[in-house]
């Protein structure tokens, strides 16, 4: 039909040119001009991609592709065949996951592409593609099918937070100032067990307390389970009380002799 329309348009143009001297020829020339505009718009519509992406156009010289060549689109989600018309368009699609096979019927000039569905629906048939485009369509469909078949690696689940954390408290304790009074704490440090990178290690804390504690003082170490919802964090290292602030009997000695625990 497209070829008949083209032949009629050419005959009308020749007739109009030969009869420009009479009214019939002028009317024919007007009809020829209008038909030329209509054919130009049809050719422009047929060459406009219907969707973004890589479109495979059938050759206009193939059957039924003169004005509206078949457009074939392969996406990671679906295979779409689009065929324009003078009014509207015809479109077929199959999901990539439902493609059963892709067949190529290679001819002397053009190739036919047949995409069959696993769901029992009618296959998609597209005529007039070049042999290169037909092979590219088949390769793309197989690539997208392979990608969908490879199971995606689920994201690693973050470890569940423990219901309770253990904190450790190191305290420097001095003997009571009066016989009836309890011992008192000169300094203490609370940190996670095991210590975190931003916290001081247990060895360094004990060494510091031993180096600053007065005679007769000792160190206590206790594990304290703290609920995970505890609003506060480890107290960090609190330095011991300065020697000038201690009672005379508990001031730090001036020599560097080791302290007992």
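Sequence proposed for the structure above (261 residues):
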């Amino acid at each position: 039909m497209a070829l008949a329309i083209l032949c009629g348009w050419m005959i009308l143009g020749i007739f109009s040119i030969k009869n420009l001297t009479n009214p019939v020829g002028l009317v024919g020339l007007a009809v020829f001009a209008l038909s030329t505009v209509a054919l130009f718009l049809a050719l422009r519509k047929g060459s406009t991609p219907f969707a973004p992406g890589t479109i495979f156009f059938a050759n206009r010289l193939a059957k039924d592709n003169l004005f509206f060549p078949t457009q074939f689109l392969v996406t990671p989600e679906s295979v779409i065949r689009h065929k324009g018309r003078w009014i509207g368009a015809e479109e077929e699609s199959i999901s990539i996951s439902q493609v059963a096979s892709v067949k190529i019927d290679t001819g002397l000039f053009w190739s036919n592409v047949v995409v069959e569905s696993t769901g029992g629906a009618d296959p998609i048939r597209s005529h007039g593609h070049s042999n290169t485009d037909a092979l590219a369509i088949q390769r793309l469909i197989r690539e997208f099918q392979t990608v969908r078949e490879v199971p995606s690696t689920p994201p690693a689940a973050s470890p569940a937070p423990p219901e309770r954390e253990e904190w450790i408290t190191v305290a420097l304790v001095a003997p009571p100032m009066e016989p009836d009074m309890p011992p008192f704490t000169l300094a203490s440090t609370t940190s996670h067990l095991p210590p975190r990178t931003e916290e001081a290690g247990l060895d360094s804390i004990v060494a510091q307390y031993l180096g600053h504690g007065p005679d007769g003082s000792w160190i206590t170490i206790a594990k304290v389970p703290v609920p995970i919802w505890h609003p506060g964090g480890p107290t960090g290292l609190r330095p011991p009380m300065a020697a000038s602030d201690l009672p005379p009997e508990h001031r730090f000695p001036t020599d560097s002799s080791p302290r007992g625990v």
